[in-house]
Specification:
Chain lengths: 401, 243
């Protein structure tokens, strides 16, 4: 009986192929939209997480100024002594890396490239989760004297040396020559979409003196906490120390900012999660609209097939059998819609992830849920027309033209 | 109980109407289509129901076919009180004991003759192989071997009505109800259909109840009941036609 009803439903769908397709279009688009949104949202969240963790764990960033952007220029820069004080006085810190950064032209032979040159200590590489692919770190003597040597990122190597090993070669940075002592392992794209590998490291003093000309100023201080440190407590401690060193009065606001990368990561992935849910919900509404489309067509179909229903009833079909036939027809329609939607979502995820570089993690859960949901919509919106069909009076139905 | 059994034993009525009343509408606008009809039909009869339009013959037919229930009175089919059955129970009765032939053929459109004939068997839950065999047999019985795959649009009126008859007899019903079966056919086709019904009645002993307003079609029946104004006006047996 059940199998028969399914066969009958499929036959009916095949008979009106074009109409059936238009009927389920709403479901198709709804399912495809929901799956695409959720899949890409999850991919984006995962990508965020990976990028943040590649930035380094337990990382705090201390920078002058209260807000992002222009305000930073109004506040005094940090001094190298600030970094030393932090290292000495805040015990929960594992590493303190003062850092300056300046953009500079790089030349090797005929190759030309402009990159950001970062001056810091070996600690910076540790704090930032950087690893050497070849060569060595800065020696103590190089750090002390501020000798011009550099460790370069993968992108810079690519632009200036191609696939050759750069270690031992010379790069002309602005107006001085600088031997390459190390090459970093590639990290890939950063949190904001910038290329993390497009970078050159030099000892702090080298950049301060030769590129910037202010031997004491520091742009940022990167701080790495010990594994079991409580970041709130550590941040409070740092804040107290820095207020003291920068001689801020009780009534004055901070003229520096402490950022906790993990906190930023959590905020960001939280935001993405909310966006994903919001977009998914909007897409789910279109699923509902698709359901109404199915109900509409099923109602038309019941009216159109009144005589057929009359014949079936006269021949001895019971109410439930007619109900089941139409219900299965509605469910089959919407389930087909769901399947096509899943296929469409798969294709659109592939395309979108290729375009946006968001990783495509196929999630069987959301596909299953969407499919079940679309079938449920068939039951929900198919029930009313099916009941109308089942309750027809056979005599009236047979007389219907 | 004993009285019942005694009467049943005496004349073995398959169908019995007792003071059957059917009223449509309520209050002021109420219309009595049947006003107290008594009718007994034995198994194996070929009965024609005649009468002008509005005489209640169609209403009687609908009740006889268990498509409708009487407002009051008793309708016993096989000793079962049909007036006490609900919609689904009446559907089951139709499924197992009755076959229908309509004036407008009422075949499923865009569906092959074979599938049309199989339809009642589908609701009886018969397996596929049996359905196929029975449908082929029924189509052969009405002279449509070789037309199994044709849809109703590809068949003539006479052929469509034959398919409808095949659909009605495929379940081996006890009663075949034919509502103006020749109403949409020319006279040659009409006579062919009537001959077919007569043969089915004779060979298979199927009780046939036929509504018609054409006297020469009613002439094929062995008993003619005339309805006028919702009541039986005359009820007469006819001599059997020479075979």
């Amino acid at each position: 009986m059940f199998l028969n009803a399914i066969l009958l439903a499929l036959r009916e769908i095949r008979r009106n192929l074009m109409r059936s397709f238009l009927t389920i279009l709403g479901i198709v688009i709804g399912v495809a939209a929901v799956i695409t949104m959720v899949t890409l949202g999850n991919g984006a969240t995962r990508m965020m997480g990976e990028q943040i963790s590649s930035l380094g764990s337990n990382l705090l960033i201390l920078r002058p100024g209260q807000r992002m952007g222009a305000a930073a220029f109004g506040s005094a820069a940090f001094r190298v002594s600030d970094a030393d004080a932090l290292q000495m006085q805040v015990l929960a810190l594992r590493a303190v890396a003062p850092m300056v950064s300046h953009s500079a032209p790089l030349v090797v032979g005929n190759e030309n490239w402009s990159s950001s040159v970062t001056g810091s200590t070996n600690d910076y590489l540790m704090v930032g989760n950087w690893q050497l692919a070849s060569g060595r770190l800065f020696s103590a003597e190089e750090q002390q004297s501020g000798r011009a040597v550099c460790i370069i990122g993968e992108t810079v190597r690519n632009k200036l040396f191609g696939h050759q090993n750069p270690v031992g070669a010379q790069i002309r940075v602005k107006n001085f020559s600088c031997p390459v002592v190390g090459l970093l392992v590639a990290k890939g794209q950063g949190a904001m979409g910038m290329d993390q590998d497009d970078t050159v490291f030099m000892p702090l003093k080298a950049v301060q003196r030769r590129l910037i000309g202010k031997p004491q100023d520091i742009n940022f201080i990167m701080l790495s906490m010990r594994d079991n440190a409580d970041s709130t407590q550590v941040m409070a401690q740092i804040r107290r120390l820095m207020r003291e060193r920068r001689k801020l009065a009780e009534s004055e606001d901070d003229d520096f900012t402490i950022m906790d990368t993990r906190q930023i990561a959590e905020t960001l992935s939280g935001t993405i999660g909310t966006m994903t849910m919001l977009l998914g919900a909007v897409a789910a509404v279109s699923l509902l609209v698709g359901g109404i489309g199915i109900m509409n067509i099923m109602l038309v179909s019941v009216t159109e097939r009144t005589r057929e229903i009359g014949i079936r009833l006269a021949i001895g079909a019971m109410e439930n059998e007619v109900l089941l036939q139409f219900l299965i027809e509605a469910v089959a329609l919407s389930a087909f819609g769901g399947l096509i939607g899943i296929a469409l979502a798969f294709v659109s995820c592939l395309i979108l992830s290729a375009v946006t570089q968001i990783p495509f993690d196929f999630d069987p859960g959301i596909n299953l849920v969407s499919f079940v949901f679309s079938a449920a919509i068939g039951v929900l919106f198919g029930y009313m027309p099916a009941r109308r069909a089942a309750r027809l009076d056979p005599i009236e139905a047979l007389r219907h033209e | 109980m004993s009285q019942d059994a005694a009467r049943k034993g005496k004349d073995d009525a398959l169908i019995e109407f007792r003071k059957v009343v059917k009223t449509y509408g309520q209050g002021q606008t109420a219309f009595q289509a049947l006003c107290g009809v008594d009718l007994r039909i034995a198994s194996g009869e070929f009965l024609a129901i005649m009468g002008p339009s509005g005489s209640g013959k169609s209403t009687a037919m609908n009740i006889l076919g268990c498509l409708d229930a009487p407002t009051s009175g008793a309708y016993r089919f096989h000793g079962v009180h049909v007036e006490q059955l609900d919609r689904n129970q009446r559907a089951l009765l139709r499924r197992h004991y009755l076959g229908f032939v309509f004036q407008g053929f009422n075949l499923l459109s865009r569906t092959s003759a074979q599938e049309n004939v199989e339809l009642p068997l589908l609701y009886r839950g018969e397996p596929l192989a049996q359905r196929h065999a029975a449908a082929r047999q029924a189509l052969a019985r009405v002279g449509l071997s070789g037309w199994e795959t044709h849809t109703s649009a590809e068949l003539s009126g006479g052929q469509q009505q034959r398919v409808a008859i095949a659909r009605a007899i495929v379940t081996h019903p006890q009663v075949l109800l034919a509502d103006e079966p020749t109403g949409n056919l020319d006279s040659t086709r009409s006579h062919e259909i009537m001959e077919l019904l007569v043969t089915l009645n004779r060979e298979r002993g199927i009780t046939i109840l036929m509504v018609t307003h054409e006297a020469d079609m009613a002439a094929y029946a062995r008993r003619i009941v005339h309805f006028v104004d919702g009541a039986v006006e005359s009820d007469a047996a006819q001599p059997e036609r020479g075979a």
